[in-house]
Amino acid sequence: MSHETILIQVGLADKPRKSRWPARLDLLQSITGLFLALFMWGHMTLVASILWSKDAMWTIARFFEGYFIFGKGYPWLVSCIVGFIILVVVAHALMAVRKFPINYRQWRVIHAHAKMMKHEDSTLWVWQAYTGFLLFFLASAHLYQMIIWPQNIGPYVSSYRVWSEGVWPLYLVMLLAVELHACIGLYRLTVKWGWPNLSRETLRKVKWGLTAFFLVLGFLSLVAYMKIGYEHRTRVGERYTPTWVVEKERGAQQG
Q1: Rounded to two decimals, what is the model's pTM?
Q2: Does residue 11 sit within a domain?
Q3: For residue 160, what pLDDT is reported?
Q4: pLDDT tens for residues 158-192?
Q5: Residue 37 to residue 209: CA distance in whole angstroms
Q6: Burial group, residue 153, by CB count within 10 angstroms (0-12, 13-18, 19+)
Q7: How many alpha carbons lie under 13 Å from residue 215 in its C-beta half-sphere?
Q8: Minimal CA–CA distance to 228: which of 14, 50, 44, 46?
Q9: How far is Cα 198 from Cα 191, in angstroms, rounded to an integer?
Q10: What is the H or E stretch that residue 238 is in?
Q11: How many separate domains does the chain show?
Q12: pLDDT tens-digit series, residues 80-91
């Protein structure tokens, strides 16, 4: 049997082709990262509704439970949304972990190069890796709470969780990690895909501006929940109900 025949039979006669899977996985990582970053900005904006009023926060929480569509809230709808977010987080994490250093020696090499070159984009990647690693644990704990106890979202019950249950340190660290990770990720996406067509210096200024804005917004929201939780620390378990809902239910009972 000739050498050429053997190659044909074992499938090695074709011209070697580079696999397209790394590019596909990279695209999937970009899409899921973009989705999660935009979701986190939207989520932070909704959480910050407590700065507007308790009624605003209650209304948004009940909206996602379908209260204004079905006439009553179904917390399991929130669990479904959170379940979908978990799937996206897992997919993004699996794509991102391909590029993580796999041992201590690789971490040292990366740090040495970043320190030697003093290249801001390389330093940002290191911070993105650090914050991504933290979010493996912090985001998992938060999402677990949301999917198991979706009914415990509201001006008072959320504040009890932050203050009386002592979760505020976790939320503070998670706030720093998620906002840094999301803004760095979006910056690197714009550089990678070339849109918008701005200089890196301009994009970095926009990135730091967005980071500062959402960190301040998140910190003020966390302080607001801590304040409410502290004020109601002797009434843990009480749930907030807007006046118009109380009057509506009272009218329905009298009618």
Answers
A1: 0.84
A2: no
A3: 94
A4: 999 999 999 999 999 999 999 999 999 999 999 98
A5: 15
A6: buried
A7: 15
A8: 50
A9: 9
A10: none
A11: 1
A12: 999 999 999 999
